Amino acid sequence: MDAWRDQEGRRFAHTYFFPAEQYDRGLVDRLAAHCRAGWGEIEIHLHHGMDVPDTAENTRLQIEQFRDALVRDHGLLCFMEGSSQPRYAFVHGNFTLANSAGGYACGVDSEMEILATTGCYADLTLPTAAFHPAQIAKINSLYECDLPLDARAPHRRGRNLHVGRVPQIFPINVQGPLMLDFDRRARNRIGRIENAALTGANPPNLRRLQLWKKAAISVEGRPDWLFIKLHCHSMDATQRESVTGAHMQKFLGELVGGAEERRELIHFVTAREMVNIILAACDGREGNPGDYRDYRLKLAAGAASGQSEVNSQMSWRA
Q1: Is the predicted pLDDT of residue 309 greater than 70, yes or no?
Q2: Which single residue of 88, 175, 182, 187 has CA 20 to 30 Å from 79?
């Protein structure tokens, strides 16, 4: 996986969203060492409310304790310039952010408000699998919530991020592609849902790349900077081939090797780096998006750039 580099010579980066409810200091130490070697960054994941609905108090406690352990014991996460509050990105287990599946696997309507007050700078939960009850109508977007953060599923409505308008409501919502793929080679011979999941049944390839690009996820007013968020479960042994095996290696070779012919400039980024580039776009910054990887959100001392749920991000300059 070290052979393929982006425009700045950076490796394909993973963001490891480690589940707070499964925290193990030894495992996180090993994963942190892997990240400090240049392979990615660690953020926060949470499964809760599976047997009975969780409470707001318990949700806040779990997040705060895990957040503080990542900073105190591992030197992880990041800080916004001028603030001492640790900041983090978030992925909700089972996709049910802010009780968006009607009580299943959450139970906390005010979860987005809890994220905001505990330092979450971006939620990267969506999209879901096909026809999941937590999937919302707003898709393929970068946006701020447009409903009160203590309301159930306030992310179901939002104001798209735009050049010249600094985001005021955090966490911002960073979605991955969600599209219909009319591929006659699908098992049903009609097509499938494309949600940018890397699995054994759906490994990455250039055909999927074209769909991800067609989703055109960008800051309004900056259509030439495309953001592609992929996701996988790399700690699941059954998914190893799709994450590090021959399919992934072939894809990375074709992705990097054919970029010039496709007139693409590729930037492999972590979740934090992607959000920094998004914020730079909102501020009207120009030039090479790779220059803004550390724009506002700075790594904690001792952390390094470059399941748990895993997201991999790519930023394009078209």
Answers
A1: no
A2: 175
